[in-house]
Design brief:
Blueprint: E1 14-17, H1 23-34, H2 53-65, H3 69-76, E2 81-86, E3 89-96, E4 104-109, H4 120-127, E5 140-145, H5 164-177, E6 183-188, H6 190-201, E7 206-212, H7 230-245, H8 248-255, H9 257-266, H10 268-281, H11 290-293, H12 296-309, H13 311-338, E8 360-364, H14 372-375, E9 383-386, H15 394-397, H16 399-410
Parallel strand pairs: 4-5, 4-6, 6-7, 7-8, 8-9
Antiparallel strand pairs: 1-2, 2-3, 3-5
Length: about 425
């Protein structure tokens, strides 16, 4: 990360930020890509064993010779960006205010292996809907933070920043420092967890929450197929297959993050493969290749941010910390239940009592495995949308659909 985040401070100041990757780092990336030691590949195999060598060689060569980091860096720097220090950790965020004076503040939180880049095509339509054929009454002031350990919210200076309750508290503080006493929240993947916890941390300030792509906990039992609709059976079968052979990354990052960190931090091709595999597996099933689902340059901008900031390693450690916090919560909940307590005894990490939560909405895209009665057994979700396009990275894949669903849902909570 080096000089890309200036000056650690313990104040509540919000400091302007620009992405300025040293040219030496760009040259080093190109040199490493040129000197890649490619592995052998078993004849007749394909994506079932991971990213094929032929595909990755071509993509890496494009990254080295055709992808223009400086152009992408300049595009990102067109958005106002800031850093503030919360609980000793630098938090980077984009903050774009709407021209509409009555706009609703909205915090958008990305997941893994994503970044703030996922939301950049949505910023204009969300902040200035009138300029994109929308209703000015649906305008938002948009705040897009980088999760601690991701992107420019690095380096991470101590363990524990994978605890999503702690992250939610930090993001709530960011919104407070920006002067937003009432706001909406949206996120997917890890961001969905942070979004849900923001509602628990400050239900009096969060007007409503919207998430995309939630699934039953991956280490739970396989989904039963009996009684499901045809569409739900497809999702259930996909979820069961994911449990069977799709959790390798999670086991590694949640148990031995330092071991995988060496490859992610030293080899850009390892970092590229680590991310591209998920963009192949989790995007719209109609897309044959990752860059059929997501524009190739946007995909490589996301990967480049992981590479230049060293976030592949620190995001893995965040996964480890998050799983540790989850296990502690489950143990605490089990003990509380055994002593006559209940769910209200604690939330993630056992930090707080369960308050009355603000309304929630969920968007499900074509590649998602969400089945409503499993995700929402108490029928508490007030807005449930299903789409026949897109997938896990909705902001990258179908920003139009995600933007539209955000507008529709939050329209009633302004």
């Amino acid at each position: 990360m080096g000089d890309n985040v200036k000056g650690m401070t313990n104040t509540t100041d919000i400091r302007p930020f620009r992405i300025e990757i040293p040219q030496a780092d760009v040259d080093d990336l190109h040199d490493r890509l040129a000197r890649t030691r490619w592995p052998a590949e078993i004849a007749g195999t394909g994506w079932e064993r991971g990213v094929p060598v032929g595909y990755l060689k071509e993509l890496a060569e494009y990254w080295r010779t055709e992808f223009d980091w400086r152009a992408r860096e300049a595009e990102l720097n067109e958005f106002p960006q800031f850093v503030t220090t919360v609980d000793g950790q630098d938090i980077h965020f984009l903050h774009v205010r709407s021209p509409e004076p009555d706009a609703l503040p909205l915090i958008l939180t990305h997941g893994w292996p994503s970044s703030v880049v996922e939301f950049t095509e949505m910023i204009g339509p969300l902040t200035d809907p009138a300029a994109y054929g929308g209703d000015p009454a649906d305008a938002f002031h948009v705040v897009i933070p980088s999760l601690p350990g991701y992107g420019f919210s690095t380096p991470v200076r101590e363990p524990g920043w994978g605890d999503l309750f702690r992250v939610a508290q930090a993001f709530a503080e960011v919104m407070r420092r920006l002067g937003y006493e009432r706001y909406a929240a949206q996120g997917g993947d890890v961001g969905a967890g942070v979004t849900a916890l923001l509602a628990m941390v400050e239900p009096e300030r969060v007007v409503a929450t919207h998430t995309n792509g939630p699934v039953p906990f991956p280490f739970g039992p396989p989904a039963e197929l009996d009684g499901l609709s045809d569409d739900e059976q497809i999702r259930a079968e996909r979820f069961n297959q994911f449990q069977s052979d799709g959790l390798g990354y999670l086991h590694l990052q949640s148990t031995r993050p330092q071991t995988i960190a060496y490859g992610l931090n030293d080899s850009p091709v390892q970092q590229l493969a680590w991310i591209v595999e998920k963009f192949r597996e989790w995007t719209d099933p109609a897309a044959e290749l990752p860059d059929d689902a997501v524009d190739r340059d946007r995909l490589l901008t996301n990967v480049s941010i992981y590479w230049f900031t060293g976030a592949g390693a620190t995001a893995a450690h965040s996964t480890y910390d998050g799983m540790q916090a989850f296990r502690e919560f489950m143990e605490s909940a089990a003990q509380s239940g055994g002593e006559g307590g209940g769910a209200e005894e604690g939330t993630a990490g056992g930090h707080a009592q369960m308050p009355e939560l603000p309304p929630s909405g969920i968007a499900v895209f074509a590649a998602d495995n969400s089945i409503r009665h499993l995700v929402d057994p108490m029928n508490a979700v007030v807005h449930w949308s299903e789409f026949d396009r897109g997938g896990h990275f909705a902001g990258f894949e179908t920003p139009d659909l995600l933007t539209g669903d955000i507008r529709t849902f939050f329209h009633s909570y302004r």
